[in-house]
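Side project, low priority. Logging it here so it doesn't get lost.
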Amino acid sequence: MDDIIWQDVGLNDDNWEDPPRWLCDAKVRSGILAMLDLDRCEEEESRLRHERRAMQEWFSEEWDTVNAAYENTGVSVFTCYHTPY
């Protein structure tokens, strides 16, 4: 069954006013859906920003560890990262 079947607003009403716009106007319904999509996108963007920050902090720590390991081996860091052609 489609969700619309449960929308029984006005079936038992003696008041014949216009139904709410969210019920009878397709543009209003599509606007509501667009707003909900935007809200979900903004929530996801916030989560992604948090994940990016955590990943940058993790990579920075890993980079420092790698550099410390190279310094302890006595090998020049420049030599390790630069390969002559």
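Brief comment: The CA atoms of residues 60 and 66 lie 10 Å apart.
Revisit when time allows.
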